[in-house]
Amino acid sequence: MPRFDFPVFGELYSQKMQDNIACVYFKSNIGTIVVLNRGFVMPFSKLDSLIEKGTETINTTLKRSVGLSGVVIISLSAMLPGIFVTPTFAAEIMGAGIWLAFIVAAAVVLPAAISKAELSSGMPSSGGSYVYLERTYGPLIGTISGLGLWASFLLKSGFALIGFSAYFLAVTTYFDIDMEMMVLSMSALVFITIVNILGVKKVKAIQTPVLLVTLGMLAITCVAAFLVDDFDGGRPFKAAFSTDLWTLAETSAFVFVAYAGVTKVAAIGGEVKDPEKNLPAGMLLSLLIATVIYSLIAYLMMAAIPGEWWFGEDGKVVENPIFVFAENVAGTEFGIFAACVSVLAMISMALAGILASSRFLYAMGQDKLLPPALERVHTKFETPHWPIIVTGVAMGLAIFFVPLKDVVKLASGFKIMIFIMINTCVIILRQTSERHGWDPSYKGALYPFMQIWGILAGLFLIYFIGTKAAVGASAAIVSGLLTYYLYGHKNAKIAQTPFQTILGKTEEKSE
Prior knowledge:
Layout: E1 11-18, E2 21-28, E3 31-36, E4 41-43, H1 68-79, H2 86-94, H3 98-122, H4 129-137, H5 139-174, H6 181-198, H7 203-226, H8 234-241, H9 245-255, H10 275-304, H11 321-330, H12 332-366, H13 385-401, H14 404-431, H15 433-436, H16 449-464, H17 467-491, H18 498-510
Antiparallel strand pairs: 1-2, 2-3, 3-4
Helix pairs in contact: 1-7, 1-10, 2-9, 3-9, 3-10, 3-14, 3-16, 4-5, 4-14, 5-6, 5-12, 5-13, 5-14, 5-17, 6-12, 6-13, 7-10, 7-11, 7-12, 8-10, 9-16, 11-12, 12-13, 14-16, 14-17
């Protein structure tokens, strides 16, 4: 979008594409003014009357209230629950050296975090990655990626609820309470679906204490690990560097989903103070903190507990590794406390996950790529109730039919592919910046080498993620193609995209 300069109106506030209309916002002594490329000038409060039903609603009271600490809290809240599920399944593949796999996975996530920081500063609108991909590639790729993003988020939330039941089982067993875990998981799903429909205005207020308690519990567990008699710091180190490259790559691909939440905060880019500074700093700081936490906990749990403890007495992989870790280093009572905290953390993650994943369907409904029912907002609760219900039903099917390990693989596979596409978006937008007015307030360093590394490393990991993830990706592609050509194609608003501009340039050069 070309940049505009109308100093007579006041201080430039922001600009973006609104339903293919260039909108520029200025702060002045009469409030916020909106300038449209159709020639209208009006107070911000009257813009809604010109926006047709179904287009994105601009919140006239949106405030940039989230600082750097808020960005970090939101990102960590979305990421940390991954440590409650992935370590033992990763150990099944790689053994005691899994701490190195978490570091490698973080190195592959880094380019996507930098790329998304740039994209969010240039397109601070709801819909996150779906918006970036749809605006860069067009509605066809937007439909495929939107459904893929929806699937990856609901799968990650699904594995949180499956893992939650494993931790709850430890609590019920300790207190000799007999409960059906599948019923418990489904009940929790129904609860968080209803809460999402009713509206979750205080999610951030809930996430902050849960995050602090979780970090405190993990810190105490790590300190206790150093004090056990069987502690052997060399065990995980030797195991990591005696592992072959292919096994390391497979394990890194598997644990990739643990970092999926690092860029989720970009979806609220319009509410972040100084987004050109706080968004990239917050994402990178969150990624660094999560990497340290993941690798440190993975290292200590393998150093403190001897043997292949990740296999239970029945020979199956343990699904509540933090409980086992805490129980072994600090006693049964503390282990039960850790299990209770884990339950809260994973419910919090699932609550935020269904909230985020449903918004992809909502955004696609607004773009006319999905039926109009999915863009409707409940008149009383002011939430997109149909996308929430559809997401809840799909999550329930995943919980009921897909094993936990496969859920993690599918979620990792989807997320790696989306991160690859996010890296390509930055390259395409940079190359077409003059034609499409790409001038974000933040531009990532080491372009294009960082993006190229993210693309190549991501493709390398996808190779090792397994055939089930490939089948899942193929299902998303086929579903996206069918959805677009059966419904979205006749409703989509076609415009020249940066990707088409790249193809046009290539054709002109070839001639």
